[in-house]
Amino acid sequence: MDIFANLLIGLQTAGSLTNLLYCFVGVFLGTAIGVLPGLGPTATIAILLPITFTMGPENALIMLAGIYYGAQYGGSTTAILVNLPGEPSSVVTAIDGYQMARKGRAGVALSTAAISSFIAGTIATLLIALFAPILGEVALKFGPAEYFSLLSLGLVAALVLAHGSLLQAFGTVIVGLLLGLIGPDVNSGVQRFTFGITGMQDGISFVIVAMGVFGLGEIVANLGDESGRSVSDGAISKMLPNREDIRRMAAPIIRGTALGSLLGILPGGGAMLASFASYTVEKKLSKFPDEFGKGAIEGVAGPEAANNAGAQAAFIPMLTLGVPSNSIMALIIGAMIIQGIQPGPSVMIEQPALFWGVIVSMWIGNLMLLVLNLPMIGLWVRMIGIPYHFLFPAILVFCAIGAFSLSNSTFDVFLLAAFGVVGYVLRKLDCEPAPLLLGFILGPMMEENLRRALMINRGDASVLFTRPISCALLVGAIALLVMVLLPSIRARRDVAFQEE
Amino acid sequence: MSGRAEYKPGGSAFASEILQRKDFWSAVLYVTLGIGTIIASLGYEFGSPSNMGPGFFPIILGAMLAIIGGVIAIRVFTTTDGNPDMRLGFINWKALALVSGSTVLFALLLPYSGVLIALPALMLVGAAASRHFRIELRAVAGMLVLSAACALVFVVGLGVPMPLLGSLFGG
């Protein structure tokens, strides 16, 4: 019965008029940026973070979460209508979704995506409500050794999922960890790597890093290839799937939800991996495997359920352990810290209204997406057509003002420009920027926990392996690394990324 | 595959090929940053595992980074794979300079000119990075409307302490 009491607390928080409004703003913005070319959720959340500092913590988190899963939805819309996945997690949706659109079934494909996402979101919300408290109990037993090992596992998972060379991704993570150390050392107060520059005395804000690398760096990269995109103007008349469609999508939705929930919990996992896995599974199990790639509805329903379930399940490690599983969760953790909330198992106990409010708001947000987005499809279609050269100067403006407003100093704007260059350089060198941001946010946490773990154990590093949970996590991290280095899996990983 | 047999390690064609490779420049970046970190951290107390000083973690990370860079470098110099994916390709210097330059310009102008001039300057210089850049009525109107809206929302509404007109105008 506990779960219902908890969900009721959440409903009271998320159901308030203000929070419903923030939730709507979040999913609306999220869908819009998912649809708009060249602007991703990471950059958007970074740009909006300075504004959220003035809101209450629940309002801020509910809105940011809405942007995150709303973007998945918008990404699927462009995947289906123009064969351009707006987000990496909707890459596989483009395969069959676009084919359905070409056969005049764009409306059905869109509503299939919406219905699958909603069902998956509902089930995932219930799963979070069931399992988060259990995980939270385990997390209360965590000491510094366990946290260090968990953070290591998270970083390794981020490496494995990064594109391109593993070594290069490893290097990017370390650069991120090092950047995170800039500023005063927690234990001794010594200024590290600030080189006497006043503006860096408190370290660099993660907002600047994220805006520079994902906002500015992305703009420069996008300007290298300014091919326009056009919407195939197939009239979207018939929206609702028929009885045959519904019969065919039921099982894929359930399987996709299961896959997404499982993979989403893994650090570094999340929506993208889940949607790939689901597509593969559906193709194998389908009675009509030859229809895949030619507009099979299972190829839309399964992956869409999987990526939505994965996106929501990614909140579990973030909310219960305080460990981000992707760069957006890392930003949300940063936002919580600025709000004065230390993410971790204590959030659930000390701030039940916040914790359950965010969870229930995700369900409400999914309902809004389902109800509001289908009638609003005309607006999204028009947004897809906005040319990038009208859009990016506005992104520049919001980044510059956002950077300034962090501490009301122009120094942060100069830093923003510098991180824009860093972002472009990383992209040019095939070093994905997401591991950099993750390293940046996890760096100080890792150092702190390693220090404490070794201090308690008088400098004996074996403590990381003698405590069972810590050992299991580290073994997991090592196993993951070894697995990716094995030639056969490595080849498959390359293939999986090539499909994008 | 075409470039595979043409370059031998040590040849001059190999040298110019290497300068075009992404992994070569990653190696340069990582080795430089790794060694730089170690040098910069030498001034901080290293401490011992049981009582780590501020230099402990950065030196270990710096060493790891330098080693990773070194391993990538070894792979660069022992393979003559003309894999086209590993080539740097087109570097958009113009967009890089204009996008980051416009941001710097905004920061420089802000205290003197205020947002009402710094914002249009930012947009104008930034937008020039696109090859579709043209001065046309619709774009200029959009620029002015967005500048005014930002001034209204951020400065007047949210109270971000940016001057509307800066010290040059007695603001």
Mean pLDDT of chain B: 85
So what's the overall shape of chain B? Answer: flat
Unreliable segments of chain B (pLDDT under 50, ≥5 consecutive)?
1-6
Which bin fits the share of residues in helices of chain B? 55-70%
How many strands of chain A? 2
Radius of gyration of chain B: 25 Å
* Number of helical regions of chain A: 22
State the low-pLDDT regions of chain A, or none: none
Count of runs of 4 or more consecutive helical residues of chain B:
6
The biggest sheet of chain B amounts to:
2 strands, antiparallel
Quaternary status of these chains?
Answer: heterodimer
Q: Give the H and E element order of chain B.
A: HHEEHHHH
Distance between the termini of chain B: 64 Å
State the secondary-structure class of chain A: mainly alpha
- Alpha-carbon Rg of chain A, integer: 22 Å
Lateral arrangement of strands in the main beta sheet of chain B: 1-2
Distance between the termini of chain A: 44 Å
Number of domains of chain A: 1
Largest sheet of chain A: 2 strands, antiparallel
Write a structural description:
The complex is a heterodimer of chains A (500) and B (171). In chain A, strands 1-2 form a two-stranded antiparallel sheet. Chain A starts with a helix and ends with a helix. With 500 residues, chain A is mainly alpha-helical. Chain A is 75% helix and 1% strand. The mean pLDDT of chain A is 84. In chain A, α3 runs antiparallel to α4, α5 packs antiparallel against α15 and α8 packs across α18. Chain A has one domain. The longest helix of chain A is centred in the first third of the chain and has 50 residues. With 171 residues, chain B is mostly helical. Chain B folds into two domains: 75 residues; 77 residues, no CATH class. In chain B, 61% of the residues lie in helices and 2% in strands. A two-stranded antiparallel ribbon of chain B has the order 1-2. In chain B, β1 and β2 form a beta hairpin. The longest helix of chain B has 23 residues. The radius of gyration of chain B is 25 Å and the shape is flat. The chains are: A mainly alpha (500), B mainly alpha (171). At the A-B interface, α7, α8, α17, α18 and α19 of A face α2, β2, α3, α4 and α5 of B.
